[in-house]
Specification:
It is a peripheral membrane protein. It is found in: Cytoplasm; Golgi apparatus; Membrane; Secreted. The chain is mostly helical. The protein folds into three domains: about 130 residues, no CATH class; about 150 residues, Recoverin, domain 1, CATH 1.10.238.10; about 90 residues. It is about 65% helix and about 0% strand. The chain has 17 helices and four strands. The longest helix is centred in the last third of the chain and has 75 residues.
Length: about 425
Amino acid sequence: FILKELMQDTGLHYDRYLREVVDFLEKDPHFREKLHNTDMEDIKQGKLAKELDFVSHHVRTKLDELKRQEVNRLRTLIKAKQDIEGGRGLKIDHQALLKQFEHLNHMNPHTFEVDDLDRLIKSATHDLENYDKERHDEFKRYEMMKEHDRRERLKTLDEDARKKEEEHYEQMRRKHAEHPKINHPGSQDQLKEVWEEADGLDPDDFDPKTFFNLHDTNGDGYFDEQELEALFTKELEKIYDPTQEEDDMVEMEEERLRMREHVMNEVDTNKDRLVSLDEFIIATKRKEFLEPDAWDTLEQNPIYTEEEMRQFEEHLTREENNLIQKTADLQKQREDLERQQQQLNAQKLELQQVGLTKQNRVIKRQVQEHTMRAYTAAQMGGKKAQMIPAAHLEEAVGELPGNNQPLPPAYKQDLPTHS
């Protein structure tokens, strides 16, 4: 039963891996037989996982391949997360980070073993049991954020505009609450309405078994969560209209979730997240099916208290202050880096100037030494030396970049050049 449920779109981040593993396991005759003869508690306790040792070589090989693909996917996710968080270029310890993913044994990334199947079933069971709660929590945050934004908008308005806004809000709230009676989900009245309006059948001929077969759309003998939720569309259309300002489609999906949870709690007696034909028939014979209580919709059930709203807004304020502080810190770091860069640039320029000055001094000294050697050679050679005006030599040397030092007084005379 649980594996049938896992074949649906679970919404889990490892949904594709989960469904592919289940699909291949069901193709093995031995495993499929054991699956039909194992009860829910044994599956949850890992007894079914031990049957993996007896499946065909082809299935095991495919499972190995699926696991390697999943490990690679998780490693890619880890790297992407590191890059986003500013860790680009840092060495990643994949083995340590893979520990957070409990649906497989990360210590053995190459082969799919009994422990992998046991982990996968237990993780999926646990995550699915908490999935609805997480959806409820997300919806609660959504509603509080919507109210927070409304209140913040009111603060920006003058008295007259604020009064008009409040009146409009109350008008939309009352208009949304004005809808036909909602049948209790899973009751005879609710199912008969589907039978008549969706199926086009005579309500006096309502037959639970025929109804079940009509709406077991995949023909597997069970109502899964999606098939159950589809039964409530008619009821939800009484409350929500996507073309109307007062109707929120996010709220509609929360209402659908509440209806499905209620029916599952009432009908799914073995808690396998599926409704079998037997469970459905038994439920149609109960008093709650024939004479149900009224169904309270979302607007009749406050999602949060004013105290929770206050705490939520305080949390938002803290987050906003933290963000402001982080922004200020980043700006200060940027200014510090810019200042350091300016200092480095100044030091670099200074070093370049110092090096250029030293280079020019060496060149000037070499020119002077060469001139003196030429003059001495001319004198010793007994030849008439052609004199080069010292001013010309000083002018030539002074044109060197960074040179601003005149020739020493001892050389301020006409110097000869060897002709």
